[in-house]
From TrEMBL:
Pfam family, one: ArsP_1
Name of the protein in question: Permease
Domain of life: Bacteria
Keyword Transmembrane helix: yes
Similarity comment: Belongs to the UPF0718 family.
């Protein structure tokens, strides 16, 4: 599950009224960057614009398919299948939670009541941890956008790492629970806004032929438009930033910091990626630019995994529900998993 928390259902506070709210959007940042290039380096303006436009056009087909798929999953109510992964034997739950963590069509807000309900009903923390670690790393739209920017090898590698990290985290927590840890992991259930007032129920069933229901058709249209605009604005910003990176950041600087095949660049990339929050749609284009400048593949994977796990929505969802020891475990597993993932991806 990727970060969709910044869509229209979670607007930023308005700047002195609705008419100025657009000043806080990625469109404005992209426009300001291009205006700065036009003013400070007009000779390079056309090259920067063409680079960003071509990159965005190349990813366009992936965006369209991703938005259609996400809208279909939401309109059919496919998230009910995820709830069923948390029923049965604990080992089975961990495996299914790690897999469905990469398929769940939830935004970060919707995860909170979903997970709170599961923990309150007695779902083991091990399975929940598997879901939490896997979900920020990959989902169908992120997989397609990563493939468009970095190639299918990188995208598939990231998907495999997401499931593997979820499994590792789930079984690690299961082992600690067997020794008496995390006996009471849940904080008092938080209140949530109307956008996430309810989660999927175990007895709900997906309606695959959503077009037969007018309400679901409306849901499909709403999700298609909102997610399409969301992806378009963030990817436009991402490719503008990539163009700036390629044109103005010296390649030898990037290669000196995170280039090479050693472990140090991979560890450094994880430590830098952890606080540098980039959602899963902005990161692939920027990493493509960094790799063109000399960043190693292992460092790029380490940066992406650490950045996704430590993203603001992912951490907020965990922090809002569980006690500090569980949160620290989540963060520690994410960062250490990012470093190991980078090393293994570099070797492969």
């Amino acid at each position: 599950m990727a970060d969709l928390s910044q869509n229209s259902s979670h607007p930023l506070p308005e700047a002195k009224g609705p008419r100025l709210a657009w000043l806080k959007t990625p469109w404005t940042v992209s426009l300001l960057i291009l205006c700065a290039v036009l003013l400070l380096d007009p000779g390079n303006f056309q090259a920067v614009v063409i680079f960003a436009a071509k990159a965005l056009a190349h990813t366009g087909r992936y965006i369209l398919f991703a938005v259609l798929l996400l809208a279909y999953l939401k309109a059919t109510g496919a998230e009910t299948m995820v709830a069923r992964a948390f029923v049965g034997r604990e080992v089975r739950m961990i495996f299914l939670a790690a897999v469905f963590g990469g398929l769940a069509p939830f935004c970060s807000c919707e995860v909170i009541p979903f997970i709170a309900g599961l923990l309150a009903l007695g779902a083991p923390l091990s399975a929940v941890m598997a879901f939490w670690l896997a979900s920020p790393l990959i989902d169908p739209p992120t997989l397609l956008i990563t493939a468009g920017a970095l190639g299918w090898d990188f995208a598939i590698g990231k998907a495999v790492i997401a499931v593997a990290l979820g499994l590792f985290g789930g079984f690690f927590v299961k082992t600690l629970m067997g020794q008496g840890a995390f006996a009471d992991p849940l904080k008092q259930a938080p209140s949530c806004s109307s956008c996430c007032s309810s989660g999927p129920k175990l007895d709900d069933k997906p309606h695959w032929k959503f077009w037969q229901d007018p309400e679901r058709r409306l849901k499909f249209r709403s999700e298609f438009i909102s997610n399409g605009l969301f992806l378009l604005k963030w990817l436009a910003l991402a490719y503008v930033l990539e163009a700036i990176l390629v044109h103005y950041v010296p390649a030898d600087l990037i290669a000196g910091l995170v280039g090479g095949d050693g472990v140090v660049p991979i560890v450094l990339a994880a430590l830098v990626g952890m606080p540098a929050y980039l959602n899963s749609y902005v990161a692939p284009p920027l990493l493509a630019g960094l790799m063109e400048q000399g960043m190693s593949a292992g460092a790029a994977m380490s940066f992406m995994v650490a950045g996704a796990v430590s993203s603001i929505p992912a951490m907020a969802a965990v922090w809002s529900l569980v006690k500090p020891k569980v949160f620290a475990t989540y963060l520690g597993l994410g960062v250490s998993g990012a470093i190991v993932s980078g090393v293994l991806f570099q070797l492969i």
